[in-house]
Write a structure and sequence with these properties.
The chain has 369 residues and is an all-alpha fold. The protein contains 12 helices and 2 strands. Strands 1-2 form a two-stranded antiparallel ribbon. Strand 1 and strand 2 form a beta hairpin. Helix 5 crosses helix 6. The longest helix has 41 residues. It starts with a helix and ends in a 10-residue tail after the last helix. The relative contact order is 0.06. About 3% of the residues have low confidence.
Length: 369
């Protein structure tokens, strides 16, 4: 019902726009026609905002009414308060990061028009990241209110609250950080391409986006180094997420995880850390990219030229990581673990039994067989 009413409401809001477009085809004054269309667009925008506001109000009012009838109104307001705080913290931090990249980074010489457009785009992207951050309200509350526990897992020796409360929170933070880094790099490249298009608009000038290669190169290398640090941290957390794995004979860590996957993850962490260090070092040592990847600045205009190594090394690294984390574990699982599953998995099955009994308080001596 609300969907149908919303469609009718938007149809009413779109009527001035349709009339303005029809009148514009016969309007003798183009400026007046543009003003009429812009006014109609603002009217339609206002209708959309009102519709969204009504939808949000009805959703939250229904929840408030339900929680109030159950006597848990404080729980509702706690959720709303944390969501609002996380939204402003996430959006504010993201916009500060985007603005610093735009104002003091490789786009500071692009002119006021391009910089204003980039700041506006950064504000919109920051709002989206703020909305995503507000969605992590439950993980944040659980992390901030977790209780200590003396129970450690027998494999990684981490406490139970770490897996239940800390690990999901850390993973959520890394998702936001990686998103901000990726979007910042996209804004930088969009600013360069936009500036080149405004200067002339032909393909030769747009392809010459790397003409001012030094600041752009260093900026993207810095963001890339930060991104691979977050990738290393994500892989590190993936090690502990094996406790939730259902790939083995029991839920949790198995023989293959401890003896194959965890070492592979540590190698992957080393690769990500090495790539990050390489990108940071390339900012200081300008010839490093040329010596390792064959990438160099060529010509008087400073464009980028690559070589066969530029196209061979990154796919080789990715292929090696895929082999290490995907193909090799599958082969070992099929030809080593499966034929000896009872023998190899016995300690991990026992861990599963022990902790299940502990969770249900089935540790009394008379239950022993």
């Amino acid at each position: 019902m609300f969907f149908l009413l919303g469609v009718l409401f938007l149809a009413v809001g779109a009527v001035p726009l349709f009339r303005a477009i029809r009148a514009g085809s016969t309007e003798e004054d183009p400026a007046a026609a543009r003003r009429r269309v812009m006014t109609a667009v603002w009217i339609l925008t206002a209708f959309v905002v009102v519709l969204i506001a009504v939808r949000v109000f009805l959703a939250y009012y229904t929840e408030l009414f339900w929680f109030a009838r159950l006597g848990f109104e404080d729980r509702f307001w706690t959720e709303i308060t944390v969501k609002i705080i996380l939204f402003f913290v996430g959006a504010g931090a993201a916009f500060a990061f985007f603005a610093s990249n735009i104002l003091i980074g490789a786009t500071k010489d692009l002119g006021p028009i391009v910089r204003r457009v980039l700041l506006l785009a950064g504000a919109v992207l920051a709002v989206l990241l703020g909305v995503q951050a507000s969605g992590f309200w439950e993980e944040t509350l659980l992390y901030l209110n977790q209780a200590a526990s003396g129970t450690l897992d027998p494999v990684f020796e981490k406490s139970v609250p770490f897996y239940l409360f800390s690990l999901p929170f850390y993973s959520s933070v890394l998702v936001l950080v990686k998103g901000a880094l990726f979007l910042a790099a996209a804004l930088i490249l969009a600013g360069r391409i936009g500036a080149a298009a405004l200067r002339g608009g032909d393909m030769q000038q747009i392809e010459g986006v790397t003409r001012e290669i030094s600041p752009l190169r260093n900026h993207l290398l810095f963001l890339g180094g930060l991104f691979f640090i977050t990738q290393a941290l994500t892989t590190y957390l993936t090690i502990f997420e094996l406790m939730y794995s259902k790939a083995g004979v029991v839920t949790g860590v198995g023989w293959l995880d401890v003896n194959v996957r965890v070492p592979a993850y540590w190698i992957t962490i080393g690769v990500h850390s090495a790539v990050s260090a390489f990108l940071f070092a390339s900012i200081v040592f300008r010839g490093l990219l040329t010596r390792v990847l064959g990438i160099r600045t060529a010509g008087s205009e400073g464009g980028i030229q690559g070589s066969r190594r530029s196209w061979a090394v990154p796919p080789a690294v990715l292929g090696g990581l895929f082999l290490l984390n995907g193909i090799i574990p599958s082969i070992i699982d099929s030809y080593v673990v499966k034929p000896n599953e009872i023998t190899l998995e016995h300690p991990f099955i026992q861990h599963n039994i022990d902790f299940t009994r502990q969770a249900y308080k089935l540790q009394d001596p008379f239950l022993e067989t």
